[in-house]
Write a structure and sequence with these properties.
Elements (H helix, E strand, L loop, with lengths): L2 E5 L3 H10 L6 E5 L2 H10 L4 E5 L7 H9 L6 E5 L4 H10 L3 E4 L4 H17 L9 E4 L2 E4 L4 E4 L2 E3 L3 H12 L7 H9 L7 H15 L9 E4 L3 E4 L6
Helix pairs in contact: 2-3, 6-7, 6-8, 7-8
């Protein structure tokens, strides 16, 4: 039975969508701001989200970006505006579809069925990887924990995100600018030293001998990588 999350700060809109999607095969969850939506997705097995863009506490674009860090669930954005800029922004951040208010009940129902069919039947429902293991390092993205040979390792959020980036693509070389862009979500200007400091701290926590690392390697003139299956 598909679980659908409706998120809009207008109670009347939420109630209307519940009526449009009154199907015994659906279980409906509701949220009234982006923060509640993110929390619901973290707790429940949601298969589709209808989410407004303009909301208090956390807007729909920010909430969608947070959700996309851990889930590939289909997201249909809702907006009272018809400007192309809103649509382009939503689709670029990760929306699967877009409906402009006021919407036609039949259109909403059809688009929901289409997205659910694709997600559940054609492989879209495969969850994103949550646990990464390389040698003695295990990173759990759901619990945000890291262990080394069974012992807990305390990492800062940025150290965790860098390690996850490297472990998700073992043996791939990431330049300092790529790492900064992916982890800090900012334009990488003069950031090589910032990344180098975080890499050094990671090595101090994960390597027996940081000067002779088993895992996080420097590729001279190119960047950093984590090696899988070598010297471990």
């Amino acid at each position: 039975m598909p679980n659908i999350l409706i998120c809009d700060d207008e109670v009347d809109i939420v109630n209307a969508l519940r009526i449009y999607l009154s199907d015994p095969d659906y279980t409906i969850f509701t949220a009234f701001n982006g923060k509640q939506a993110v929390e619901t997705v973290a707790k429940e097995d949601i298969h589709l989200i209808l989410m407004d863009i303009m909301m208090p506490v956390m807007d729909g674009i920010t909430a969608m970006a947070r959700i996309r860090e851990t889930s590939a669930v289909p997201i249909i954005m809702l907006s009272a505006k018809s400007e192309d800029t809103d649509k382009i922004l939503g689709l670029n951040v990760g929306a699967d579809d877009y409906i402009t208010k006021p919407f036609n009940p039949l259109e909403v129902s059809a688009r929901v069925r289409s997205q659910l069919r694709r997600y559940l039947k054609f492989g879209g429902g495969t969850p994103l990887q949550e646990v990464y293991v390389i040698g003695g390092i295990e990173l759990n993205d759901k619990t945000k924990t890291v262990t080394l040979d069974g012992d807990d390792i305390a990492l800062t959020p940025k150290e965790f995100d860098i390690l996850k980036l490297l472990m998700a693509s073992p043996d791939r070389v990431f330049s300092p600018k790529e790492i900064y862009s992916e982890v800090w979500k900012e334009k990488p200007f003069g950031t090589d030293n910032t990344v180098a400091v975080h890499i050094r701290h990671l090595r101090e926590k994960l390597e027996i001998d940081p000067a002779e690392p088993r895992y996080i390697k420097v590729v001279f003139g190119q960047g950093y990588k984590i090696e899988k299956g070598r010297n471990q």
